[in-house]
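Friendly challenge for the regulars: who can give me the structure tokens for this chain first? No prize, just bragging rights.
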Amino acid sequence: MAVVQLWLALHQLLAGATGHGGSGHLFNEGAAWNLAWGIGLLVAAVHAHRAAGLLPTLGGFVAALVTFSVNDLLDGTATTARVASHVPLVAGLLLLHLVARAHRNQPTPGAPARHDHDHGRRDDLDVAPRAGGRRRRPRHLRPTAHHRRAA
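First reply, four minutes later:
Bragging rights claimed.
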């Protein structure tokens, strides 16, 4: 879907550059949005952990686009073919949602790894009160390996 969206954006930009489509700054903004969404979908395809971050913005954009497209179809200011050119973006949103769901339980890149031997340990944020009622500061850094000490 990312490649299709990029192709549509490039086609829109080239058609606008040769004078075959749209007019003015508004047309260029639409082409820029299509190009940006194509790049965003491509990044999410390569780095799946980023998919969830794109969902709110792309979801809002698609909701507004569908609303305006239905209105334009009813008013006769847009053709069915023009509105159909938005189908890859809607499909991209659905695929983005599926990728985000599939990767939601995976750890965030750069987060500390959890191992089987950590099962009985407290979380970094779980701090027990010290004697006297003061809370101990959280321990942010843990050893990354266990070493045997020489006897």
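The first helix runs from residue 2 to 17. Residues 122-126 have pLDDT under 50 and may be disordered. Your move, everyone else.
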